[in-house]
Amino acid sequence: MLRRALYFVAPSLAEVREEPLAAPGEGEALVETLVSAVSPGTEMLIYRGQAPADMTVDATIVALGGTFGFPLKFGYAAVGRVVEVGQGVTGEWLGHLVFAFNPHESHFVAPITALHPLPNGISPEAAVFLPNMETAVSFVMDGRPVIGERVAVVGQGIVGLLTTTLLSEMPLNALLAVDPLPGRRRWASRLGATAVAAPEEASAAARALSGDRVPAGVDLTFELSGNPRALDLAIALTGDYGRVVIGSWYGRKPVSVDLGGRFHRAHIRLVGTQVSALAAEWLGRWTKERRFDVAWEMIRRHRPERLITHHLPIDRAPDAYKMLEEDPAAAVQIVFTYS
Predict the structure, then answer these.
(1) 71 upstream amide cis, omega within 30 of 0
(2) Distance CA 230, CA 247 (A)
(3) Close Cβ partners of 165 (under 8 Å, ≥ 6 residues apart)
(4) Mean pLDDT across 289-304
(5) Tally of helices (H runs) and strands (E runs) in the chain
(6) How confident is the model at residue 59 (pLDDT cuts 50, 70, 90)?
(7) DSSP secondary structure string, 140-177?
(8) CA separation for the pair 134, 153 (Å, rounded)
(9) pLDDT digits 0-9 by tens, 244-285
């Protein structure tokens, strides 16, 4: 059997290859992919050759072994249908719709333990948002927003928009969304931000939220832009004794942060966060499965599939990355199809 799979083969070069696929072994299933979602932040780092080539892709995901060196098959948001099962797997799995943290490819074999059945009422187009919704849930958990706080989210890509959506449900005093692209700012407003601003306007917007209150600035800032220069902006927006949650992964892009100004005297706390593992303070009561349950419920409640702007056949995947590179304002969420 042959499958079509997307490979990143060199900086700014992606291609779809045909390759053989073995039958499922014991405890495994063969899945025919229906849709998979592009995660622009991480995937564009890889596309541009900005991911650390010697770094393990993800030790917690079976399908993402190896390192970030080229050629690399990547992606982690696939939804498909189980079409064959190996020994030791009950036939009840046949025909089930499942989610998997799997690269962009038309078919894949995976351990049955790595497949997540879609909950009732959630479509494949909604289910592909599970990784980014789980990330947004994780960021909010680690940020710990408090009732009445002023909060800013710098970066309104997919994860930023989902984080803004979750924060909009909370009894905050104000929620500021920052992004250079007008289309993303419009989406942030629709999703519940009480104020939006371009980066060059963000400091004035944060001051306006504070009014004559002391201390000035926001209480909590999420830096989710993927742009190292935005970290200085996040710190600038944050008031004395506030905290900055750094959800961006910068890859090999150099990060130069100005810590010589008010940072130390303001006692601003920088919080690192990443979704692959739970922060230590949650381990006594939370598991990945519990966080998955929350993410599924947030998908059901907020319908992130409305953010999909492009359905592209997998054979046009190279065009998708070229578009994200040359005209990032053209797309919010790209989904690959496989029929």
Answers:
(1) yes
(2) 12
(3) 136, 191, 192, 298, 302, 304
(4) 97
(5) 9, 15
(6) low
(7) HHHH---TT-EEEEE--SHHHHHHHHHHHTS--SEEEE
(8) 17
(9) 999 998 888 888 888 888 888 889 999 999 998 999 999 999
